[in-house]
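We store amino acids, tokens; thus:
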Amino acid sequence: MMAVATGTLAVVARRVGEGNYEEASRVAEQSMYIAFLLGIPVMLFGIFFGDEILRIMGAKGEVFEIAYSYLKVLFLFYPIRFVSFAFFASLRGAGDTKTPMKLNILMNVVNAVLDYLLVFGKLGFPKLGPVGAAWASGIGITTAFLVGIYLFLAHRLVLKPVLELRIRWNIVEKILRVGTPTMLERGLFSFYNFLYMSIVTRFGKIALSAHQIGLRIESIAYMPAFGFSIATSALVGQSLGAKKPEQAEQVVKEAIKMTTLFMTAMAFVLVVFPGILVDPFLSRNDPNYEVVKRLASIYLIIVGISEIPLGITFVLSGALRGAGDTKSPLYVTAISKLLFRIIPSYLLGFGFSIPSFTILGITFPGFTFKGLGVIAAWIGMSLETFITAGLFWIVYRRGKWKKIKL
């Protein structure tokens, strides 16, 4: 689905920049058609093969029954969920970020209310337990989607309905051509993240607990950068559509300034007040309270140092995707995450030995590095953030993204 959402945002933004709102709306509709078609096999796969997935994961007995019942309901709504992603991406590409935000708030409110009613069986509703949470999630996204489609059909959004009820394969091809590298990038990112977490997990439960607490706090800190990334994607695409590459560069420049300002503030809080941030996530009755708090605080200090380049990475990657250059982020992710995060984290964390060796008659002594533990994994992650920002800056400065045709 990332392929459709990313491609849709870039193409819609380009058409809006050209002033061709009718074609932008047509792209939006085509993206929703293809998203729905992609959602159907995913739904069927989850419903009919979800049990096999759970068995592979080791689920048994009552846990298996509850999990499978939950998955069947959850996957039932996947076509609507996919269409919603495409619809929201279209609006963001057209420069309307408020409507998706409002619809997401509506979705979460409906979800929260129905969670209370259906999970616990309140106000006469059946008590469904975890399955109730799946129904709440599905009904929440469906409600938000229906409200959004009503606004679209009522001509109350920046994009207006064209209602061309057939697949335009030239548009679909363009969306997927732009978006497919992003799908591959996200898949690669997930794989690398799995490898990275397997490294962290090997340092023990205390290290893993500290990592998860720190990551949860940091995810809040970089939300502003995520918002600037989306805005930059839309504005860069629109500027290029208007044949104003200089304006696109100015958008990126201003986005970097604002992101740096926000991320500097976030970095200050993470580095100066880590213990205060960590404390609400811990129980003082936990015998490991002190050591987990200390490790989680170290995590926040280490990642806090790299918050500014992280924000710059968000902006530059967003700019490239908005321009339709989705291959460069794929290449950067493929290289940077492996060479500068995974490998250094493993070697510096667990240590390594180099035996003595002889070259041209000269014998060099061997040495052993014992490893720094989980802290090395966090240092590796922070180091990789700086390098990734540098790689994105090099790609951006080369300027090839300004010449991409969509």
Observations:
- The longest helix spans residues 21-56.
